[in-house]
Amino acid sequence: MPDLLDPTTLSDLLRVASASDHSRREDQIRRTGGCADPIHLRGWVIHKDKATGATLHHYSTESEPGGRLRVACGNRRASRCPACAWTYAGDTYHFIRAGLAGDDRRDIRATVRDHPRVFATLTAPSFGPVHNRPDRAACRCGIHHAPDAPELGTALDPATYDYAGAVLFNHHAGQLWQRFTNRLRREIAARAGITQRELKERARFSYGKVAEFQKRGAIHFHAVIRLDGPDGPNTPPPSWATVQLLTDAIHAATTHAYTSVSVPAVEDQPARTFRWGAQLDVRPVKAFGDGSDITEQAVASYVAKYATKAAETTGTLDRRIGELPELDRHHVPDHTRRLIEACKRLDPLYPDRRLWAWAHMLGFRGHFSSKSRRYSTTLGTLRQARADYRAAQEAAALGLDDAEPDTVLVLADWQYAGHGHPPPGESALAATIHCGLQLNRETARDALANEGEW
Known about the structure:
Blueprint: H1 7-18, H2 22-31, E1 39-49, E2 55-60, E3 69-71, H3 82-101, E4 117-122, H4 163-192, H5 196-202, E5 204-213, E6 219-228, H6 243-255, E7 261-263, E8 272-274, E9 281-284, H7 296-306, H8 325-329, H9 334-346, E10 369-371, H10 379-398, E11 408-419, H11 424-450
Antiparallel strand pairs: 1-2, 1-3, 1-11, 4-6, 4-9, 5-6, 5-10, 7-8
Helix pairs in contact: 1-11, 3-7, 4-6, 4-9
């Protein structure tokens, strides 16, 4: 639930609650899921019968509070809009889990559970020693750090830490992932004793991945990787396709010389060759309910959690940075600030890379969640299914559900009219609605899980 309200916000919340249009305003906010930064629209829509020209329904924002209609912003970042990020995380959960357990609604058979699949974590190399919490010893600085110590992940010696290398690695991480997937095909084929052309006819691998920033500000990837038959998840893999073969191929692909990205020397910057770090973790994914830690639901939940986060977890800003003094106003930590300053310093040396434009992401410019084409359903498909469901609800409420789509002409005119919740009381109302909706859905999900239907 939201924190305790300050007197100004509480007073404005009472004003909003006592307004004559409060009921409709609350309904609009609830329809956005409690979005923290809704888009405001002005306009109208008319439904007409094509044959007779009769008006079946007319809607205008003139009768709405403030003459505006609010729609959800759709931002995936939890730091910008917890409500829309929660929806995005739910969609990510479903497309990851559908590729692990199957989903009849997405035309993915449950037999996909029998395919070899692993949960792999590919990390960044070292750019210098940082404060950490070893399992059986103190940090190199001689201190046993608390789990939430602010110095964790920061450089032991900032003067020797390779901040330029760190942001350049982040910037090339997407290209390094592509090199890895290309090499993985070759490694799978080699272990199966077939050519790459034959591999396409017998099997294919699919993946769904998410990026995460470590405390030191370096990007790494968590990925579900699965072996299928030639036509994807609904075709069985060949007999030689095993979890062990897939695991061995992943290890070989990450360490192969081909799986690297070279950056040429420029002025005071040396030539660099980036590879994955030594901390590679590959674990088989077990079926739900067998007592394993790496289960289908656990993996899908883990991936969904990080799909709504970005570099702001390191203390940087969640938007593009105008000038360096902006970092002082937002109290950006020193280690993160040095990474951002490295982007500023390197930007003119690599003009085609636009490092300063991506300084708020510590150089990373790739997609935070992505998948191969045949892994499972897509986020677009999930969103369209939700939109179709809501459209059907609305049509039923308006009495238009019996009308054939080809017989109805829809005319509309919409204009952007702003965004957000200008009154602080309205923001508090949106946060409360979001928390209530989330609690209700989590309670329903837990009930389904206990019944074995989730």
